[in-house]
Design goal:
This protein is mostly beta strands. Helices cover 0% and strands 49% of the residues. The protein contains no helices and 28 strands. Strands 3-4-5-6 form a four-stranded antiparallel β-sheet, with no helix packed on it. It has a four-stranded antiparallel β-sheet with strand order 7-8-9-10, with no helix packed on it. The chain is globular.
């Protein structure tokens, strides 16, 4: 499963794509700082690509100071690139290309916890996800002292005395915005929204509810996120981009690919969530030749058979209430 990296103008026009023959990489995450594209390649590390010269200039892996290469997540922060790993956090200075790695410094109880970094303004937080060997928590980085401050479950009102079987914190949402830092989590009984008080340097509990979090307790999405995916029923996905509070729509089409035929007359045929697509021997991207249209909305497609004369596929339409098969469409 090799993923393509596509480059669009804000108008939605596709202008470039990564040549999969030039870089053997199963992409997992990406970030752009200046004229450099940083690409996570599974089990390889982070590849730095100069977008002006269109060439690979460096790879960051174990030899460069990132000992853990599973499920890397990138967070740009000015000229710093933060990397969340399965066992700590890496900090890459993109000017000097030096790497620092933090593990024990995060101050979270347990071992082997995956971390995700959130950055905004002068604030950097590492959310340390709970699992069987760690109750989780969140750590705040102070650049002036190069120190981390840890906030475990007890800071958020979750104690071993209160719930011996639930001493852990799982963040449903963690937001670092220009309006403050917010956390939404479940304490075993209620869904809680908390806000970090910068003056007092502590977390302050907001609302509790047994329903979904109240959106009026959280900042607007454009204050912490510059894009938003917009899924469609046919399996495609477009997205919105925020530029200084104004949203523009980019009709970039995404697909879920389900099956591929053997090569027929120098062409592969792919079964996707959008229909049937053709991919020539020398093509980088497939083209849609038969759109799926079903009365019941999106229906899973299954490949039955293919030869030089025909491709046969079926759509299985489900009963929404009970999940039973309602009908087949061939």
């Amino acid at each position: 499963q090799r993923r393509h990296i596509l480059r669009y103008r804000r108008s939605g026009e596709l202008v470039a794509q990564l040549n999969p023959r030039a870089l053997a990489c199963t992409a997992f995450d990406l970030a752009v700082i200046g004229h450099a594209l940083y690409l996570v390649c599974i089990e390889q590390g982070i590849v730095e690509i100069d977008l002006q010269a269109e060439r690979v200039v460096r790879t960051y892996g174990a030899a460069e100071g990132i000992p853990e290469l599973r499920n890397l997540r990138l967070t740009p922060d000015g000229e710093t690139l933060w990397v969340g790993t399965f066992n700590g956090v890496a900090q890459i200075d993109t000017r000097t290309r030096t790497v620092r790695f933090y593990r024990e410094e995060l101050g979270i109880e347990g071992s082997g916890f995956p971390s995700t970094v959130h950055a905004g303004g002068d604030h950097v937080w590492a959310v340390d996800h709970a699992h069987a060997e760690s109750p989780g928590g969140v750590s705040r980085y102070d650049a002036s002292t190069d120190q981390w401050t840890a906030y475990g479950p007890e800071v958020f009102g979750i104690t071993r005395d209160l719930r011996p079987d639930f001493f852990r914190i799982d963040f449903n949402r963690f937001i670092v915005s220009d309006r403050g830092t917010f956390a939404v989590f479940h304490n075993g009984q209620d869904r809680v929204t908390s806000r970090f008080d910068e003056a007092a340097q502590r977390w302050v509990e907001g609302t509790r509810t047994q329903q979904q979090e109240r959106l009026d307790d959280l900042p607007p999405i454009e204050s912490y996120q510059s894009f938003e995916f917009v899924p469609a029923e046919d399996g495609t996905a477009s997205f919105r981009i925020s530029d200084r509070g104004r949203w523009s729509f980019v009709p970039a089409q995404g697909r879920e690919y389900l099956a591929i035929t053997p090569m027929i007359d120098d062409t592969y045929y792919l079964l996707s969530s959008a229909g049937i697509e053709a991919l020539g021997r020398n093509d980088f991207t497939p083209r849609l030749i038969a759109r799926a249209r079903f009365s019941g909305g999106r229906a899973p497609l299954l490949l039955v058979s293919s030869d030089t004369r025909a491709i046969v596929a079926i759509a299985v339409e489900m009963n929404d209430l009970f999940g039973g098969i309602e009908r087949y469409t061939v």
